[in-house]
Fold this sequence. Notes:
By secondary structure, the chain is of the alpha/beta class. It has 6 helices and 5 strands.
Amino acid sequence: xxxxxxxxxxxxxxxxxxxxxxxxxxxxxxxxxxxxxxxxxxxxxxxxxxxxxxxxxxxxxxxxxxxxxxxxxxxxxxxxxxxxxxxxxxxxxxxxxxxxxxxxxxxxxxxxxxxxxxxxxxxxxxxxxxxxxxxxxxxxxxxxxxxxxxxxx
Length: 153
């Protein structure tokens, strides 16, 4: 049986696959309010040539527009890959109550979003759930970079 988290992560994975088809790093994000998806997005950095066009940022902007507020207090975000520093900062600033991600970033020296959440200097902290559909999320990113390296040789 598919859990609620797996259901929404599968939708984020579909977004990541769209990014991959565009030659983007395959990361997808879905923002949920209650049990309804209010925003979804995938990476568009290469396509739009904008450093900030990560899946999470695009999804947050769409969700804010949908609810007509920068506060997404009652929302959850499902992301195929652990959010980077920029994206996690945006998540905290949007006050998203819960972050669910699939694969970890993987760099041994990277600061994790869990560490950032503990150190955040804001009066808000989020709840973090990691490892949802981790194998599928991780495989998508790993295969993307493996193919990219193979094609660059």
